[in-house]
């Protein structure tokens, strides 16, 4: 046998011999796929939107060469960007810096994300350039280089077979040369990239120039409004130290209860000079000294505080946060039958924590002094149609103020509320016993039944105190008796309010007089319910359901007898209850005297209660009668109610009143004609009325807790927006259209967050919308930049020019470019790739800098 070893034929592909060539091939395959797919398909395949850029998407792939792993990202636009739109906010830094639309970025997957080795970066860029050339793609490609803080890049772009565009960017992070702080020096820097000598180009080079300046409003010093430097010098040192610092919201309606952080930290003003052409460096000096009012466009952007979108507990302190604590106290209110149980010493129990602490007596005394200080209530009821449906007390009433103080008393826990309520009722009893007028209560002859029961009781008590005081004084002079003409009898007529037209007394043919009568006694909601229950229990056969009705009827009969001494029972029925007098006069109206008629069946029955009361009623005018309202008895009943009120009943009424009062206070905020804010406030009232209606229905606490907490969340969103609206309105009060537009932009940005769930919504998207400033609004916007004081001027060295009211820009961005016709000079080509008159951008430089920072990006087009 012969050993046979088959020789396998093998082919070596020397076209992909090295690792770099295989790397290039892999890049080429990926780019070909991306080119074939196009933007629409790439978006369907999972291309991600670049954060903060609505029109820019990115897809990436990882590549491996040896031990190094690279990430290649392709950035593309959903829709093409128009010409000269690089100053728009929706422009990526790379697009703005190098004047490109779509681009590739390749970088190693490392901590820094940059290539630190120069040979490696050059080889990496060359690999991408070869791959793109093989694909026939004109995509520009970039590689980050050097230290990350320098933000340095190198890049390349193939423009057909003739032209190549190269990119380079670097940064000076400190000690910027003075020459480069000014436009003249920057212009010379740009010219130096292609003008080697005066013979290379004509003496004057046409340079296209565009500039964007960003100004930031200085931190506003509210003290300067009331305390200028001269006044400060005249004050003693201690007086200056003790001078209270003025807050931005000192004159806002909520300022009495808390000071809100200004949601608008400042404004950024962007001034843009459109593209212009300059031929001499000296012209740059004129631009630098030009007024910002000469800019083609102004755009304004509010710098909004982060707490506006932060739901973290404790980040925002306002009515909403305290209402949330009150709801927690309401949940705990069912744990005891009496408020005193919460006040009892709980030091040995688990619930003796910081959440149940009570402020010291000095704080309680201060609250009581504020609640019971002399003075009338001047609060105007909210005009919102849902306000009265919430069954709360007015914000400036005694109970309304108690609820508002309770929100900020300690941490609004149930124990602190119980302590405050007991002291509150003790002060009310003192006012009653000393016949002192209740503060913050309007003197009215009626009780507001649309308010909560506690407020009704306090209204009743205020009236009882006034009636009690009048009993201790001399009786007032009664109404002056009015007598009729000579037909009056020897009996004295008293308490007449006037003659009743076409009514005569049956027996004497005298004119019937209507008497002054007592008003029906005031009743609170629970008293009306008792009266209704009595009517259901005793029936209404004779029109009387209880002692109260008997007393009212007796009073009216006594007054009628005093005004009509010769009247009989039938006369009273004809005046008081015409339905119980059955007339028998002729239909033609001709009737003799006395008129024919009789009492109704119920009034003529034997033992009729009305006739019995008539027989017992003495002839007394109102001035001599005993009042239907017994102030002492009713006052004691009110105090008994307040002193024995159950915790849950108290907290139910406190929750309704606190929500209503807080909303009414916020509703007095001045925010101009912001229709969106007005609509949201109306929606808040409607939501509160709907939610709190369930609370008045005596529903289970556990069922209501979730709804009330969601209501607190909604309240917080609207409270934040309202504070923002007030801040924007007062800062741009002379530019109302601009203020409304800025608020509308932020409102639409914030709207998705205004859900009703308790969970915090992830809100990573930043607010970046800018509003264009009209020419007539520029003066109002420039007032946001008050000239610096002498104190501020010597501290800061101005070095950049383009001042706005003495303030230099925080950032200056410039684009220099030079264009040439293809048929001229260095860029002429025998290959007809472009029309003879078409121009290409040969050099472009983007400069972004401040007085101590400069970043330069250069792109150069060469003919290969």
Automatic annotation (TrEMBL):
<dbReference type="InterPro" id="IPR045700">
    <property type="entry name" value="Rab3GAP1"/>
</dbReference>
<dbReference type="InterPro" id="IPR026147">
    <property type="entry name" value="Rab3GAP1_conserved"/>
</dbReference>
<feature type="domain" description="Rab3GAP catalytic subunit conserved">
    <location>
        <begin position="490"/>
        <end position="643"/>
    </location>
</feature>
<protein>
    <recommendedName>
        <fullName>Rab3 GTPase-activating protein catalytic subunit</fullName>
    </recommendedName>
</protein>
<feature type="region of interest" description="Disordered">
    <location>
        <begin position="474"/>
        <end position="495"/>
    </location>
</feature>
<keyword id="KW-0343">GTPase activation</keyword>
<feature type="compositionally biased region" description="Basic and acidic residues">
    <location>
        <begin position="474"/>
        <end position="483"/>
    </location>
</feature>
<dbReference type="Pfam" id="PF13890">
    <property type="entry name" value="Rab3-GTPase_cat"/>
</dbReference>
<comment type="similarity">
    <text>Belongs to the Rab3-GAP catalytic subunit family.</text>
</comment>
<dbReference type="GO" id="GO:0005737">
    <property type="term" value="C:cytoplasm"/>
</dbReference>
<dbReference type="GO" id="GO:0005096">
    <property type="term" value="F:GTPase activator activity"/>
</dbReference>
<keyword id="KW-0963">Cytoplasm</keyword>
